[in-house]
Each structure stands twice: as C-alpha cells, then as structure tokens.
Amino acid sequence: KRSMVRDLMYARVDPVLVDLSYDYVGELSETVAHLWPVNAPAESLPSLSEIVNALQTLPRATIGSYIAARLDEMTAPERWAFLKLGSRGGLRVGISARFLKQVLAQYGGRDVQEIEAVWHGVEPPYEDLFAWLEGRAEAPFTHGKPIFHPVMLAQPVDEKDQGSFSPDTFAAEWKYDGIRVQLVANAAGKALYSRSGDDIGESFPEVLDRVSFQAVLDGELMVRSGDRLGSFNDLQQRLNRKTPSQKMIDAQPGHILLYDMLFDGDVDTRAFGYAERRRHLEEWYQRVKPPGMSLSPQLKFKDFDDLLEYRRGSEAEDGPIEGLMLKRLDSPYVAGRPAGLWYKWKRDPLIVDAVLMYAQRGHGKRSSLYSDYTFGLWLDDVLLPIGKAYFGFTDEELKQLDSWVRRHTLQSFGPVREVAKELVLEIAFDAVSRSKRHKSGFALRFPRIHRIRWDKPAVEADRMAVLEAIVEAA
User: Fold this and answer.
1) 89-101: per-residue pLDDT in tens?
2) Do 208 and 202 touch, CB atoms closer than 8 A?
C-alpha cells in the first residue's frame, strides 16, 4: 500500500524533505525512486514472478522489510518500475491513437489509411499486424468482422466561411447534444462504437438487441426521457454503467439519430456524395423501419440569416442541441477532418463567474502543478461546487494560478488543496442540467476556464439562481 511505502521512506529520509519532494514531483513512486538511500545495486534481481509470489505468501508483518530489501538492491529506474507495478500505479504513456497509426505507417512504409482499415480488426499481441508491416504476410484479414471504420469529422465554422453556405451546395442539420456513435452490423456480428472506436455496446444492450439488419450507420446516441430525447446528463448516467439494470434501460432506453450510412449490407457508400448517401439512407430507413432510431431532420434554409436563427435556438423539436452541422452536398465520407467539406457551428457558450474552491495536481507534465480546479457559486452565504475544469488557460496563466494556489492554501488533502475563497474564474460551458449526484443540484456540460478575473472580488461572483434561470429557460 502507498502508506507502507511512505512509512518506509520516512524511516530513512527526513519526512519534511520527503513531503517537499513529493509536493514538487506529484507522484509517490518517482519521489521514492530518487530519494531512497543509495546502496550498491545487486548484480541480479529476483524475477518478477518470484517477487509476486513472495508478496502473496509472506506474513503481512514481514512484507515491509521484504520491500525495503528489494529497494536497497535496485537502481532508481528499477525502484520506480517496482513501485508502480506493486502499488497499482498506472504504467502508461499518453499518446493519441492517430500518432500511433502514423508511426506504424512510417514503420511499414504504408499509408495511414491502410492502417486505419485494419486497426480495429487486430488484437494483442498484433503478430499479424507486424508481419504485414514487415512484408512477411498479407494484410490482417478483417473482412466480415463488425469492425469500426474511422469517422468523418467537421471543421469549426470560421468567420471567413460564413458567406459560402448556400442551399445549393450545403445541407444543414442539428448538432444534437449526445455522443457520436457508429453502429456496425453484419453476418459476423454487431457492435456499437464511440467516435474514437471504443466498444460501448455493453452499456446499451437494448440498442444492439433491436438490430436485425446488416449496415454501418453513423449517428448520435441519446436516451429517451418520456416522449422526448433526454439531456446529455441523462445519457451520462447510462454511459457510466457497464451493465445497466433493466429498470434503467426501461426508464431511459438508448435512441440513435441517424446522420449517415457507410455501408448498406455489402455496398460501400462512402465514395458517394453526401446528398446521394442521404437519399440512400432515407430509402433504407423507410424499407427497414429500424426500431429505436430516427432520421436526423434536414433543415431548410434560404440564406445565412436562416442558419443564424437556427443556431440561436436552444433545442430542436425533439431534444437538446449544441448547434448546427453544415455538410457539402457532394462530399464523400472521408476519415479524419478534411478541410472544406463538413462544418460544425456551435452555439455561443454560456458563462458564469465562479469562485475557485479547490485545486488538484495534474498528471504527466503537469504533475508538479496545480492545474485541476473545482469552482462554485454562492447560495446565500455558502459556496457550493458546480464543476471542475482543467483547460482553457495558457501555460503562463497556469504558472500564475499554481503560484496563487500555493500562496492561498488553507488545507491539504493529499494532492488536493483547499484555497481561500477569493479568486474568481469566468467559466464557459455548453449546457446545464439538474443533477441529484451533485451537491449544488446542477451539472455543467464541458466546463472550461474562459478568463481569470483577477480584478473581481469573490463576493461579486454569480449566485446559484443564475443556473436555475438557465435551466428554467431551456
């Protein structure tokens, strides 16, 4: 346990030095690895399996001395790896899937699109993938598997783009406030994927149970709340459950708003223009009439002013929205974020002035900085937390915030500090909904720091009634 490791450290090094070092490094295993008194490293160490067996079988009273003896024998990197493995620390390196695909493409002299085509059809230890990249075998066989196909993404609307949107060249539809999904169904099986390729079918078994066709569909997953589509907060209750109860499924069943069609059976429609794919999707929908799904409505517009009016709306007729999607009528379905084909035009964010309450150390390169901030609004004379944010500021502003946190700390709770209720943060967010899980009674959608109000007294921050008014107006 972490407490055992810390006590072993305190017995060998001045506890004040340990605490100061840990506060700077932000991670116990790394702190101990560097501060542990240097001994002559052993020529050879026990194997990992021997250590695991010893930790499982030794009397509890002797485990501490066993761990200390092993740390005495190790170099600093070995101590770090030993402690990370033994104390449930995450041995991970944060890189994007896109970056890894680019590395593999370069390694094998392939195009990234070729890697994308097989990515979700290969499994650890990836012997068939590397055999292909090294020219020792054909491409991994993925045909017929219900594999994920990389999704097409949209560019944000820029001011210079706004004059180019006409009904002759673009289609408009709502950008619903759910999560983007891809439903894959073929003779080999069926699966429900998030936009990043994570299989979320276990969380929504009723969606897959309703599938009796073969197709690959692109859409927005939401939940039904009575006769209407629920909020993102409603959906989040389902996303957090790997095995939802039947009661939860019955109360808030999953529903997919269909945007696009990639395959109709074995027919690959991705090379078709958007208008043609949409006609194909509509014909398929009328023929199949899939339960628990509906077509995302196409919005009629004459000019930019019509689009602007749509964007100002807080929700569509059937549920909450984030804004608009604009798609070129002739655009093929292309993986990634190609320029000039699809655009997303979100509504302007909502903003409140909140008071910083707690700060927590970040991870990775931010592990020595207080970069995760909990903030709240006033209810009478009490501050109630309404959310947490860890982006929206520059590197220089992060240094300023970290310095302020250290100088205004009231109490410390491990990596978390309670701070004086004096600093106002301007918080931007996309939506707010009622929540029984939060003490304040509200949950924010995508909160981020919009501005640091060094100039504003905390007593002038917003009150909880501001969120109440937003919810009532929605």
Assistant:
1) 556 666 777 789 8
2) no
Measure the CA–CA gap between 474 and 429, rounded to whole angstroms: 14
Phi, psi of 452 (to 5 degrees): -100, 120
Helix/strand/coil for 170: strand
Angle of helix 48-57 relative to helix 60-73, nearest 10 degrees, comes to 160
Q: How far is CA 120 from CA 117, 139, 198, 217, 328, in A?
A: 8, 13, 10, 16, 28
Confidence band, pLDDT 50/70/90 cuts, at residue 349: confident
3-class SS at 55?
A: helix
Amino acid at 450: H
- List Cα–Cα distances, 390 to 12, 14, 425, 432, 467, in angstroms: 36, 33, 12, 18, 21
Closest CA to 84 of 49, 32, 45, 39: 32
**CA 33 – CA 78 distance, rounded (Å):** 8
Average pLDDT, the chain: 90
Nearest-10 Cα torsion for 328, 332, 333, 334 = -100
Cis peptide before 320 (omega within 30 of 0): no
Report how far residue 385's alpha carbon sits from residue 352's, in angstroms, rounded to the nearest whole number.
Answer: 13
Is residue 301 helix, strand or coil?
Answer: coil
Looking at the chain, how many residues does it have?
Answer: 474
| CA 151/CA 180 separation, integer angstroms | 9
Instruction: Give the span between the Cα atoms of 386 and 440, in whole angstroms.
Output: 6
What is the gyration radius of the CA atoms in the chain, in angstroms?
A: 27
Mean pLDDT value across residues 397-419: 92
Q: Which residue has the tokens 């629920």?
A: 230
- Please write the tens of the pLDDT for every residue from 143-182: 667 889 889 999 998 878 777 899 999 999 999 989 999 9
Q: How far is it, in rounded angstroms, from Cα 371 to Cα 360?
A: 6
Pairing verdict, β 293-295 and 254-264: parallel
| Phi, psi of 114, rounded to the nearest 5 degrees | -65, -40
How many Å apart are CA 456 and CA 450, to the nearest integer? 14
Tell if the pTM clears 0.90, that is, is over it.
no
437: tokens are 């899980």
Question: Which phi-psi region, left, alpha or beta, contains residue 422 (left: φ > 0; alpha: ψ -120 to 50)?
Answer: alpha
Q: Measure the N-to-C terminal CA separation of the chain; round to a whole number of Å.
A: 48
Using alpha carbons, select from 295, 155, 151 the residue that is nearest to residue 216: 151
CA distance 243 to 10: 43
